[in-house]
Amino acid sequence: MEMLHNKAENKNWIVGIGSALIDILTHESDDFIEKKGISKGGMTLVDKTFIESTLKMIGNPPSIVPGGSACNTVAGISRLGGKARFIGKCGSGKLGTLFRTDLQKQNVEPVLLYSNSPTGRVLSIITPDAQRSMFTYLGAAAEIQPDEIMSQSFSDAAIVHVEGYLVANESLILSTLKKAKKSGTAVSLDLASFTVVEESRGILEELVSNYVDILIANEDEAYAFTNYKDELKALKALGEKAELAILKVGDRGSYINYREKIIKNDAVKSGAVLDTTGAGDLWASGFLFGLVKGYPLEKCGQLGNICGAEVCSVIGASIPDLGWERIRKLVEE
Q1: How many CB atoms lie within 10 A of CB 154?
Q2: Which one of 90, 100, 168, 303 is most buried, counting C-beta atoms within 10 A?
Q3: Count of structural domains within the chain
Q4: pTM, full prediction
Q5: What is the domain-level CATH number for residue 316?
Q6: Is residue 4 part of a domain?
Q7: Greater confidence, 36 or 31?
Q8: pLDDT recorded at residue 6
């Protein structure tokens, strides 16, 4: 791709910027979701008390793992063999230590800022259809300031990947995108959630038009952003905003629109779907890794589909070692 052709030989890092969060995963019924009165499959910002009171109502002990959209993506890139860095803010307590330790374990370079506030957390409620509905308490992640993001962190980057959730802090996401573009990297933005797009469509349109090279969306996010239910019309509209537009269509695969050339990649089956947490994040891992490696766009899309499918066969956004072995084998083939 032209946006990556001129990168220096040593500019091969992918830098993720987002909320440093701990994922709390639990399985509940559709009735539980309805009683809470939330949009299924969406993301709702809440306070710490809400999460604590909701946890008292759940039936089974939850799973607790480090997470956050951009963090999940760069962790996947590292597991594929890429060079990955994550920038975010967390608390200085035990959960902050857990977050850093997990990044290092996955060979992701942590650029973490610390706060006296608690580390942010996401309560993901997984229903029997494998959909996840998220309640997010940002905690320390919401306190990151524009001047805390250093341009030096982008100096060796081929791609800077930003999660759409950061739009809640307009000055932060605008400053970050400006610094990334000034450093000469390609900028990737994942729209993150249809609820985020619905609440911030105006500013997102402005940011995408002015700074984003790679725009990633699923069907719900694309509809919220373009007003088109028809996926090809939505894909075309996304492509008018960014040089490279991605539309993920769940178990039917994904579309790529690069300068009005449409590529369709069929879905990959990888066991029973247990949980869709992290599916979009890991799709981005495969796709962005492929771009930096110089793969054809078709192969990048296939790798995204493979990673997205693999993570759906486990609970949470972390693919186990055996899954990564399967993915690497497919990449080699």
Answers
A1: 26
A2: 90
A3: 1
A4: 0.89
A5: 3.40.1190.20
A6: no
A7: 31
A8: 43
Q: Which domain holds residue 95?
A: 11-332
What's the pLDDT score for residue 7?
46
* Pair 132, 55: CB distance under 8 Å: no
Determine the residue type at 313. S
Between CA 66 and CA 62 the distance in angstroms is: 13
Residue 172: φ, ψ to 5°:
-70, -50
Q: What are the tokens at 39?
A: 């949009």
| pLDDT tens profile 223-250 | 999 999 999 999 999 999 999 999 999 8
| Nearest Cα residue to 74 out of 180, 218, 213, 190 | 190
| Alpha-carbon span 217 to 212, nearest angstrom | 13
Question: Quick check: 41 and 220 in contact, CB under 8 A?
Answer: yes
Q: What is the rounded average pLDDT of the residues 151-169?
A: 94
Give the β-pairing of 214-218 and 244-248.
parallel
Question: Does residue 258 contact residue 186 with C-beta atoms inside 8 Å?
Answer: no
Cα distance between residue 126 and residue 241, in whole Å: 33
β-pairing verdict for 13-17 and 83-91: parallel
Report the candidate in 155, 151, 112, 158 with the shortest Cα–Cα distance to residue 14: 158
**Inside any domain, residue 117:** yes
Inter-CA distances, 322 with 21, 130, 254, Å: 25, 21, 24
Q: Taking all residues of the chain, what is their mean pLDDT, rounded to a whole number?
A: 90
The DSSP code for 260 is T
DSSP 8-class letter at 52:
H
Neighbours of 125 (CB within 10 A): 23
Under a CB-based contact definition with an 8 Å cutoff, are residues 47 and 144 in contact? no
5 occurs within a structural domain? no
Q: What DSSP string runs through 128-193?
A: TTS-EEEEEE-GGGGG--GGGS-GGGGTTEEEEEEEGGGGGSHHHHHHHHHHHHHTT-EEEEE---
